Each structure stands twice: as C-alpha cells, then as structure tokens.
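Bit of a strange request maybe. I'm writing a small parser for structure token strings and I need a real example to test against, not something I typed by hand. Could someone generate the tokens for this chain?
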Amino acid sequence: MKLQTKSPFPGCDPYLQKRWESCHGDMIIAIRDLMRGRLPSGLRPRIESRVFLEETDAEGHVQRSNVKPDAFVIEYPTSYPKPSIDSVSAWQGNTPNDNGDTLIAEPFEFTSIPTEIKERYIDIVDVNDGERIITSIELLSPANKQPGQSFERFREKQDMMRAGGVSLVEIDLIRGGNRAISAPSTFKDAGPDIFYRIAILRSWERTHGTLYALTLRHQLPTIELPLRRTDPPLTLNLQAMHDIAYDRGEFAIDLNYHKEPEPPLPAPDAAWSDQMLRARGLR
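Reply from user aminoacidic:
Good idea to test on real output. This should exercise your parser:
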C-alpha cells in the first residue's frame, strides 16, 4: 500500500494523541484491513463497540455510564421540557420593573441531552463455532486510563475475557494516565521514558504473557496475534497500522508541529523531538 504522507517520528507520533478520537477509528480499521485474507479458515475480524453516555453533573464533573449495545435499547424522551412563555419573554427583555423603564432578566430551565461516545475494538471470532470470540484486540483510549467508569468497565471486560478463555492483545499508545493493560508492572517497563506498551496474553498461558515497552524513539513492533491454540500466530505490523491511519486521516495537514504536543514531553524527549522536527523542516 502506497502512502501519500508519513509521520516524521520513527514510531508513534505523540501529536496524534490530541486527535485520538479520529485517529483511534482509523487505526482500528487499519488493523482489520491488515488482517483481511490472512486469517485461518473460519476466523473473521469483527469491529465491535462499547457505548457510553456522557453527562456533566451539577458540580461540573463528567459522568459516564456504560451501555452494552447488544443488550440494551437507549430510549430518549420524545420531547424535552421547553421554557415557559413568560420565562422566554423575560429572557428576551420584555419584562419591565415597577417603574416600567428597566428590564429584569429572569432565568429559565433547560434539559441537556447525554452525549453518546463509542469505543471500538476488534474481536476475532470463529464463525464455525457460533461466533465464539478467539482473540480480542484493544487499542486503548485516554478514558481507559483515567479513574472512573470507563477505566473500571475496561478492566472488567478484560477480566471477563480472560475468564472466558479469550486471548487478549492490548495496545497502549496513550501517554499518561493510569496503567490499564493486564500485564503486571515490572522495572523494565516503568522508566520515565517508557510511553507505550503492548501486552499479549494467550488464553492457554494463564501465568505468562508478552510485553513490549517502547520509548518515543522506538519503531512500533510487528507482533504475533494468538489465535486458536492449534493455529500458528498471525503477524501484525503495528507501525504499518500507525502509518496507514496517519495517512488516511490526513494528519500531516492537521497537526501543528510548531507547538509542543499534549500532554507535553519530558525535557530530554522534548529536546530530541525539537531537533528531529527542525531537521525535517517542520519547525
């Protein structure tokens, strides 16, 4: 596949995190496309979704509630309360005071509608065995690494998959936040320059897994996806996934490399990034 544009970074572009909602979808589609026609007989990649309703409470805190799209129907009211005629008139400036010369503003109530948010992932299923899930591939989002329901639901889903005999592949390309991948923390992946992690947990190896710990300067690896125990693993080039998503999303046009990425990089990585971007004429 010939790409029109490519990120200036050798691995994961840290500037993509600011555009993660769009980039995440492009990467999920790229993963599916990279697997297409290469899976053993009977296995298919399926893009699935977790659905959240996001609301802001009276104190300004964002609350998320999880909805399973295959188990629930979300029913919104057919209509929402409208402000009264009198309140609207007051807001529009039609209520004089006792002297008849000064307008008094009066509040009116309104009802907000929850925002629907989808988090996509890929399940590899066996169509010859009742669509049984063989492997689940998660590309983490920032919400998966922040305290709250999204983090808790993500971990619950991973625990449920492990208990159900499903292999897991967790791809964490999000800088900052809580540790969310299922692999235990070790001194080898806890350094201040370790930003990205990929964990592979095979269903038939309960106490063993594979972990990649990557710095900003690492190229993303080609990993082996576990399938059925009798199948050979399927290779998946994560750098190709990244580069396809970067090109399809036209991020070379949208990203501003003159500014620092969000969240900001530690000083040594910021200095390296600045030097690298200047050498490529992007600063």
